[in-house]
Amino acid sequence: MYYTPSDIENKWQKIWEEKEVFKFNASERTQKKFYQLEMFPYPSGRIHMGHVRNYSIGDVTARYYFRKGYNVLHPIGWDSFGLPAENAAIEHKTAPAKWTYANIENMKSQLKKLGFAYDWSRETATCTKEYYRWEQLFFIEMWEKGLVYKKNSEVNWCNKCNTVLANEQVEDGFCWRCGSEVEKRKIEQWFFKITDYAEELLTDLDTLEGWPENVKEMQRNWIGRSEGTYIDFKVKGSDEKLKVFTTRPDTFMGITFASMAVEHPWSDKIVHEAPNRKEMEEFIDEVKKLHATVKDDNYEKKGFFTGKYLIHPETGAEIPLYFANFVLADYGTGAVMAVPAHDQRDFDFAEKYEIPVKIVIRPEDKELELPLTEAYTEPGVMVNSGEFDGMKSTDAKKAISDHLIEKGCGERGINFRLRDWGISRQRYWGTPIPMVKCEKCGVVPVKKSELPVVLPENVMFSGATSPLNDMPEFYETTCPVCGGKARRETDTMDTFVESSWYHMRYVSPHSDNAPFISEDVNYAMPIDQYIGGIEHAVMHLLYTRFFTKVLADLGYINFREPAKRLLTQGMVCMESYRTESGEYVYPEDVENRDGILYDKNSGEKITVGRKEKMSKSKKNVVDPDDMIARYGADTCRIFSLFAAPPEKDLEWSEEGIEGSFRFLFRVWNIVTDNLDLIEKHNNVPETVTEGKELFRKTHEVIKKVSEDIERFHFNTAISAIMELVNSCYKFNADTIEKKELFAFALRTAVSLLNPFAPHMTEELFKMTGNEKLLSKDIFPTYKEDALVAEEITVVVQINGKLRDKLTVSPDASREEIETLVKENSEKYVKFLKSGEIKKIIYVPGKLVNVVG
């Protein structure tokens, strides 16, 4: 019998689906549950090897817990709103809905070919009105709770996508979706008040013990909590006051200038009054472009004098106020006091613009050398600070804050870097925002009874702008309050809103009267294991934590974090080739001419050839359908799980996938060659007198595979199964007892391999006389006493070099080992420099080092 995956895989996929093997029962709330979830795909039309890897990782875990007796929820769906559908609609002159639903069907077919253990009855698409009607309900309820508002705000704007981008969606100044340069623009838009949850989002990170520390740290940095003092400065020649925020009140007496973000609310007025208005506007435009394109602060610090002076609250000194390119509007108040002696950015700025530097903190044990060549930023002793002189700077923080509060010009406060979530998108293919504007009543929500506000699907694009603005049948409506004429909101929601609660809808996907059945969600959640890319650490993962807390406060659920454990899988990488003109070239179109690579089609020289994430745009994608046709789904799964640990990047390798196929072929051959033996000898040996090494090896591998699956060490789990199969190939089953042991080891190898290669192992399980399904059979368990070796091998080293091996009892004492060494001393003397044993070093159970 030859191993032909195409004959096996389709057969078992149909059987699993017909028998509803992987169906979750939400009503069985007394049964222990396991919710396994991978971040759902965008229906782009084709899956790639990155999908194969991500979903194979989750599938192994789901299948393992199915067989451990858990009520497993393992759903799949489609993150199906968004810009690519609109771009495709414009390019192909079709409707986004038609394009999206066709892609869903195609990708669904591809995923099914891989045999993933999904409960397909829970399939969800976020672009359906059955889904987004509840999102609109959440929006209205959040509005009623004061968690939604609309304001005119400066935003990140992508001209190509013609829409607003959240800060998290701007990558090094470019649109995360299309790669176009982002600019700043003022526009009216809707916000979720995620800042109301900033403190809880931060502190609850400490409860997420199953999340990677780097993800939590990224969220901590993004939330950016800092304690400090707000200080009011009077403006010279005016009744106005400028409020600044500082975390260093101890440096208050060292202020020599102040700096302000160009986006500060005072900016327009300052520009309007400036005599050098044109130059100031040019500087502001330059800084806005810088802020849109650069995320770190590794750039030259520049400023522009505003023409205004602040009055120091304590000394009365006049402090020049500058626009500075390193001050951000979304931190503190957008204005900061500048102390160049004790802040390096301020120091660089002061040197550039010849601003005085005043030292107010020195080291405890010495004076600072003058002139300063860099800012002194360490704690120390206060100087040049009046009544605070001689005080430790750490104590002066509180003392100076108290002093400013008593004077009525200061207050303590906490500042967060996190800003409210701008969810308006000036695009069509998204959830309609359920609000209307009435001239009499203002902005009011749609009546809940009239939800959903349905997005018309049969549309055609005349350009890049949303067709909703050209559809009076959509935007003309009546006011829910007074019944008068009103205009429906034509902005749609950020697609990250849909992905913030989809995991709850999976639990009750067919609920018509509520977003989900709360009792079922409270049983199934939080997610036990969540899997997805690190790129979502401060977008999706932060937003879904926020949404979970909001839904808890709205009374829908009784938990406040969405997932107990998180795995951020690595990327699948492949060689990517680019020509001198920057065009990517398919690998098959690359030719080598005397050691130089060229594009066969254009003749251009290849200047870049490096490992990069698989991407259609980089023309380095491997089609899983091709791999399944050649090697089978099980081989694709084994390769993606064995080639690298899940959290590391995986490098695509044709040799690697061929090696995975050869391994499965070896398993198939040894089992099918021994079918009669396996079926005849179906007892599970409790103990053996013959073949003890294989007996122990089998139980060791059961233990290792179980532990490795639970900690996502899939590559080492597969390696252990390979070792067991190799041991079976070497084993001589020449007695009845050995035949029973051999059959047990082979059955175990097939059973352990099942979560990784489910189709082939299900077929082998059937062929060896089993009527039930291996996918539902209890996962193997090991015997503790079988793991104890009767004998162990101890390596003997002479002055650090291997010279001998001893076979001893695992309970052998140090004294017994030393006695054995001395009894064999004649064998070792010739290797000893001194001719005699001077010292014996024993590492229990491993080695002896004889020194002499």
Care to describe what's here?
With 852 residues, this protein is α+β, with helices and mostly antiparallel strands. The strands form 11 sheets. Strands 10, 11, 12, 13, 14, 15 and 18 form a 7-stranded mixed sheet that branches. A 4-stranded parallel sheet has the order 2-1-26-27, with helices on one face. Strands 6-5-9-19 form a 4-stranded antiparallel sheet.
Which properties best describe this structure?
single chain; 852 residues; alpha+beta; 7-stranded mixed beta sheet; 4-stranded parallel beta sheet; 26 helices; 35% helix
Tally of strands: 37
Oligomer: single chain
Give Rg in angstroms: 34 Å
State the end-to-end CA separation: 60 Å
- The total of helices stands at 26
Overall geometry comes to globular
The overall average pLDDT, rounded, is 92
Uncertain stretches of 5 or more adjacent residues = none
Helix content: 25-40%
In terms of structural class, how would the helical and strand content be classed? alpha+beta
How much of the sequence lies in strands comes to: 15-25%
Main sheet overview: 7 strands, mixed
